[in-house]
Structures are given as structure tokens and as C-alpha cells.
Specification:
heterodimer; A: mainly alpha; ABC transporter involved in vitamin B12 uptake, BtuC; 2 strands; B: alpha/beta; four-stranded antiparallel beta sheet; 10 helices; 39% helix
């Protein structure tokens, strides 16, 4: 048991709690404006989404483009429950229900679609996300295209922090267990994985369900923080945004996902000052980050002149 | 005691019959070779035994001591869990995972702690992970890989990758081990080391081994019986000496004599 309380874990825990306290104090003394607080909330929600998508895509190797669909199920479940249930625990009931329904849908969708591989799976999950969006758009109790508003705002920094840290810890624990290794073996080589006795279908679906569960939590937190949701918020582009965070941070790297969620949020925060060319700059930054990251990873990043001034190696 | 019994096994891909009417019996503790020219259907036969392909007809039965179980038609993971492990002709390690993880993945079938236990790091997690790590290290030591346990498996030299693959197959605790060209790409020195290793693990782990091999020095030295496959059919079986002088076998490898 004392392995939980080793030096490294204690230091990490101290750092994490320290971060929480510092931010909490900044909020209490009104140093952090509302504007920054919204960015902070988005960072937390994006971390949950990215880490959970990383479990599906980065660790288990199943390409999913429908993560926003699970988020919307969580958001709507959470919102409907907190609106209709004026109980002091409605926030937690909402999160639990959001996560549960997202996980159930993940299970139902995962079992048939995870037979597919690569591009086919990507298309199927993309379709799944859109189907969820269209269903939400056409139901009465979800408010249709107008969405739901007046959702009670229970989400605050404390809860965001607890759920984000909780998700990261739980997923990290899972990945570093035998079950997590089974998932990674599927990414590495599915045939070999089966030959080693791993039930690959089971672990693909399991990763998918855990990912959906966490996305549900993120969705419920989101709806309760921004007190207004509509189907457009959870479309294909949101899924792509999450995928971009995962890819920039590195497939199969939890730390990378966290750093890139923070980085990209900060980048888009500062790009607000250039509204006309915001997306151009954002995309350029993504490209540059990818190029530099790849070189850093291979340990051979050094600036050797501008590309068009490089000596022509072919001629020698 | 017959541990693995293959009856009239046939596999056709469209119009091509890759394995046709193969009968084979492996006795417990035997070391049997499967040879044949390229394209004879040896690897297809292995894929049938391990469930990668489903046979078109025929059956495979595995006797694990008290019950005889039909394994044809089961999924690969189910067959492995019943005690048939394999290696691959073209090495299929989990390349971007450490040597240790490669072994630990193969030990997954014996893990009892649940998903919840892994989420929340319950005591059962620590207890079992410790056992797994100890056992994996023991296995790596046997194969002389303990100093490289934290290296990514793709960074190992070729010979060590081959050894790791055998170690990984053994980590599933098999009763029958299928080796698909274990000596492919090895130099004579490495092959002779491997020969000793195979003989040794057979005794140490109480295994029945079926191996595909092109390297005749290895096959003739350690196999007690040899099956020869050509165009999907067994054309001969018997002791190495008998196979060496079998006319059909020589024809299959070298062609018929010109009269």
C-alpha cells in the first residue's frame, strides 16, 4: 500500500493541490477576470475530452471522429436534469446521468462499429456524431435548434478542477494497468494481440465506453458552466478540435494532451485580438507546432538555415 | 498421449486449396517439424491451428489433460487461452512498447483484478502487478533479455527480437508451442544457439512444440518427427532419417529426375 505514498506521488499531489489553491485565490481576490475564468473552464473541459479521446485513439488505436457526440449526450442529460430537478444534489445527479448515458450510447455504438478499422471506423464514428446531433436537433424536450437555456450554473473552478484531475488520474491508472496494456497491444498489432490471448473486441469497446463516459462528464460540466447549449456546439468541428488537441499533444501521451489543451486555449485567447486573420494564424501555428514537434521528438531539431537557402544535397 | 489432433483439415481461398485434407497428431512432449517448399501452406496451416483462419472443413482437437476440446472455429484469443501459443514468421512484436510490457501483455489472461481495481489502484492491483513483474523478469532472465527490459522492443537487434517473441509466447503459459520459422534470418551461430534454447525450453516448460523451419540443420538435429507439406497436402511424415531419403520429399524440393 505504501507505493501510493512514494516521494514522486507526494510531490505531484502537492503540485496539483498548489495549483488549485493558487488559482482559487486568484479567483477569490478577483485578479483573474471573468474572461480568463472562461478560458480556464474551457481548458479543463478540453483536457477531459482530449485525455479520454486519447485513450480511444492514442492508446487503443481506434480512430474516432465522434467524440463531440458523447459530449452532447452528457451536456443535454446534465442540463435537463439540473433544470427539472431543484435538489441540491441535482448537479451530481446530472453529471452521473450524463456520463452514464454517454457510456451506454458508447457501448451500443461501439459494439457494431469497432469491427471496422482505420478510415472506415473514422467515417462510422463521424456519422454517429452527426446522427446524435440530428436527433437532438429534432427532439422537443431538447429545445431543438434553439437549444436549452437557463441551465443552473453549478460548475465552478473547484468542481472543474476535481473532475479534471480525477479523469486524468483514473485514465492514467487504467493505462498503466494490465487492462491498459491490453489496449496498447491492440494499437501496436491487433493480430499479435489476439495471439497473446487478448480479447480485442472487449478491450476496444471498453476503451470506447470509458472515453464516452468521460466525454459525458465533460459535457455535463460544460452545460452547467455556460448555462446555454445548442446542437451546433457539438458538431463535427468540435470533434475535430478535440482530435487536434490529441494529435498536437502526441498520440498516446496524457501529459501531451494536457499541455496542448492549455497551449491551444492560450493561443486562441490571444488570437482574439486579430479577429480577421484569427483562423489563418491558428492553422499556421498548428502546422508549425507539428513540424517542430516531430523534429524535437527525433532529437534532431536544429536551425540549419531557411529551407529555400539549404545547400542542394543532390548535386554533391 | 495425443495432445493435438488435426482431422481432415482443409482450407480453400476461392478456387485455391491452400491446405487440403491434413491429418496430424502431436504426442505430449514431442518436438515435431513441419517443412515444405515455399507456398506449400505451412503458415496457413499455423493460422488455422491458431484461429486466424476458420477451416473450410475438418477439425482440430486439443486435449488439455482431462477434456478434449474442439478448437477449430474458436477465436485466436480463446485458443491461446486454452494453451496454444505461437510466434510469427515475420516478427510481430508490440514495437513501441518496452520489452517488459511485451511479456506482461502476454500474461494478461491470468490477471484477476478488474477494471475498477485498475482505475482506483486497489490493493489487488499492486499485489498482482508485483507478481506479474517478478514472473516476467524471471522469463526475461532465461532469455538473456533482463538488461534490456525497459528498452522499446523495436530497438532490439534481430536475434533478440526473435528470442523475445518466443519468450512472449511462453508467457501465455502454453502447453503447445507453434514456432513459425524461428531461425529465419539468423546466422549459423545464432541458429545453433536457438536450437539449444528450443530443446531446453521444451524440457523446462514441459512443452509440445511444432515448428516450421527451412533451416534443415536445425530441423534434422532437434525434431523427433517431421511432416512434409507440399501443395497443401502432407506428402510424408516420419523420423528425420526417413524423411531425408524419402523420394517424394526430394522430388518436392528438387524436382523429378529427368529420365
Amino acid at each position: 500500500m505504501n507505493r501510493i505514498f512514494n516521494m514522486k506521488n507526494i510531490k505531484t499531489a502537492a503540485g496539483v493541490v498548489g495549483l488549485y489553491v493558487v488559482v482559487q485565490l486568484l479567483i477569490m481576490f478577483n485578479i483573474l477576470s471573468d474572461y480568463y475564468q472562461i478560458t480556464l473552464a474551457l481548458i479543463c473541459i478540453n483536457i477531459i475530452l482530449a485525455v479520454s479521446l486519447n485513450l480511444i485513439t492514442g492508446f487503443t488505436g481506434q480512430f474516432s471522429l465522434g467524440h463531440a457526440g458523447f459530449m452532447s449526450i452528457g451536456a443535454y442529460s446534465g442540463a435537463l436534469i439540473t433544470i427539472n430537478m431543484t435538489h441540491e444534489y441535482s448537479f451530481f445527479v446530472g453529471i452521473a446521468a450524463g456520463a452514464f448515458f454517454a457510456a451506454v450510447v458508447g457501448l451500443l455504438i461501439g459494439i457494431p462499429t469497432l469491427r471496422l478499422r482505420g478510415d472506415y471506423l473514422a467515417i462510422a464514428t463521424l456519422g454517429m456524431g452527426e446522427i446524435i446531433k440530428i436527433i437532438v436537433l429534432n427532439l422537443d424536450f431538447t429545445g431543438g435548434a434553439a437549444g436549452l437555456s437557463g441551465i443552473p450554473q453549478y460548475t465552478n473552478w473547484t468542481w472543474l478542477f476535481i473532475f479534471t484531475a480525477g479523469t486524468v488520474i483514473v485514465i492514467k491508472n487504467f493505462i498503466n494497468s494490465s487492462h491498459g496494456r491490453a489496449c496498447k497491444s491492440i494499437r501496436e498489432d491487433e493480430i499479435a494481440s489476439e495471439a497473446m490471448g487478448i480479447n480485442t473486441t472487449k478491450y476496444k469497446v471498453l476503451a470506447f465506453v470509458i472515453g464516452a463516459f468521460c466525454a459525458g462528464v465533460a459535457g455535463a460540466l460544460y452545460s452547467s458552466y455556460f448555462y446555454f447549449i445548442k446542437p451546433d456546439m457539438f458538431g463535427f468541428l468540435r470533434s475535430i478540435d478535440i482530435l487536434v488537441i490529441v494529435v498536437i499533444g502526441g498520440m498516446g501521451s496524457i501529459r501531451g494532451s494536457i499541455i496542448s489543451a492549455i497551449l491551444l486555449a492560450v493561443v486562441s485567447l490571444y488570437l482574439q485580438d486579430f479577429p480577421e486573420i484569427r483562423m489563418i494564424l491558428y492553422s499556421s501555428i498548428l502546422v508549425i507546432v507539428m513540424v517542430v514537434r516531430e523534429k524535437l521528438k527525433n532529437g534532431k531539431f536544429k536551425f540549419d538555415g531557411l529551407p529555400w537557402k539549404k545547400p542542394d544535397k543532390m548535386r554533391t | 498421449m495425443t495432445i493435438l489432433k488435426v482431422k481432415n483439415l482443409t482450407k480453400s481461398f476461392g478456387g485455391l486449396t491452400a491446405v487440403s485434407n491434413v491429418n496430424m497428431e502431436l504426442q505430449k512432449g514431442e518436438l515435431v517439424g513441419l517443412i515444405g517448399p515455399n507456398g506449400a501452406g505451412k503458415t496457413t496451416f499455423f493460422n488455422l491451428l491458431t484461429g486466424v483462419y476458420e477451416p473450410s472443413s475438418g477439425s482440430i482437437e486439443l486435449d488439455n489433460g482431462d477434456t478434449v476440446k474442439k478448437i477449430s472455429g474458436l477465436k485466436p484469443n480463446a485458443i491461446t487461452n486454452l494453451g496454444v501459443a505461437r510466434t510469427f514468421q515475420n516478427i510481430r512484436l508490440f514495437k513501441d512498447l518496452s520489452v517488459m510490457d511485451n511479456i506482461r501483455i502476454a500474461m494478461h489472461k491470468n490477471v484477476k483484478y478488474g477494471v475498477m481495481s485498475s482505475f482506483f489502484r486497489l490493493p489487488s492491483f499492486y499485489r498482482e502487478e508485483k507478481e506479474i513483474a517478478e514472473e516476467a523478469e524471471k522469463l526475461l532472465k532465461i532469455f538473456g533479455l533482463e538488461s534490456k527490459k525497459n528498452e522499446l522492443s523495436k530497438n532490439l537487434p534481430y536475434g533478440e527480437q526473435r528470442r523475445l517473441e518466443i519468450a512472449r509466447a511462453l508467457a501465455t503459459k502454453p502447453t503447445v508451442l507453434l514456432l513459425d520459422e524461428p531461425a529465419a534470418g539468423m546466422n549459423p551461430n545464432e541458429t545453433s544457439e536457438l536450437t539449444d534454447l528450443i530443446e531446453w525450453i521444451r524440457k523446462e516448460f514441459n512443452l509440445t512444440i511444432l515448428l516450421i523451419e527451412h533451416d534443415m540443420s536445425l530441423v534434422m538435429k532437434i525434431c523427433e518427427r517431421i511432416y512434409v507439406l507440399d501443395y497443401g497436402m502432407i506428402i510424408a511424415d516420419g523420423k528425420p532419417q526417413e524423411i531425408k531419403s524419402n523420394k517424394k520429399v526430394i522430388e518436392a524440393y528438387l524436382g523429378e529426375e529427368v529420365s
